[in-house]
Write a structure and sequence with these properties.
The protein folds into 2 domains: 1-68, Roll (2,3-Dihydroxybiphenyl 1,2-Dioxygenase, domain 1); 81-170, Roll (2,3-Dihydroxybiphenyl 1,2-Dioxygenase, domain 1). By secondary structure, it is α+β, with helices and mostly antiparallel strands. The chain has helices spanning 22-32, 90-102, 156-160, and strands at 15-18, 36-40, 48-52, 60-63, 83-87, 109-114, 116-122, 128-134, 149-153. The strands form 2 sheets. A 5-stranded mixed sheet has the order 5-8-7-6-9. Strands 1-4-3-2 form a 4-stranded mixed sheet, with helices on one face.
């Protein structure tokens, strides 16, 4: 059997989450993370909301098809570990971190992976979320050409210093 490789321009288009409360989850992804609602299927009687960054049809689908009011799966069970959202640069990641914290949500950890800098948190249903930015490609490998792989925690305050000032409300 020959080895098949995906074309290099294939991208993950969207992720769908089964959630227990559509209003609560929509508010989190819209108001905390900043995704825009592109379609609210509840108007057609379908328990789903679709959100995106920019003009894409949707990056995130939320639904209660089998989960309205359900508890999250217990730790240690198979399932989604996390979904990752790539930010264009350090400043935009820092601003996202400030927004998450200002909304009262916790950031579980801040980790320097070498080629990337990542923040880990959970949505209201306990789904794992990674917010990250890539360092320039030349920083992804050491002088011998080996990938720089690490998992070094860092104080979130180091990142927050690069955040844009909060926009006043009202």
């Amino acid at each position: 059997m020959s080895e098949y490789a995906l074309p290099p321009n294939v991208r993950v288009g969207h992720v769908h989450f089964r959630v227990s409360d559509l209003d609560r989850s929509t508010a989190f992804y819209r108001d905390v993370l900043g995704f825009g609602v592109t379609a609210d299927a509840r108007v057609a009687g379908i328990p789903a909301v679709f959100l995106a960054a920019g003009d894409y049809h949707h990056h995130i689908g939320l639904n209660t098809f089998d989960g309205a009011g359900a508890p999250p799966p217990p730790p240690g069970h198979a399932g989604l570990y996390h979904v990752a959202f790539l930010y264009p640069d350090r400043k935009s990641l820092a601003s996202a971190a400030r927004r998450v914290l200002d909304s009262g949500h916790a950031i579980r950890s801040a980790i320097d992976h070498g080629g990337t800098v990542s923040l880990y948190l959970a949505d209201p249903d306990g789904n794992g979320i990674e917010l990250y930015y890539d360092r320039p490609r030349e920083a992804w490998r050491d002088a011998q050409g080996r990938p720089v792989l690490k998992a070094e925690p860092f104080p979130i305050e180091d990142l927050l210093r690069d955040a844009e000032p909060p926009v006043p409300v009202g």
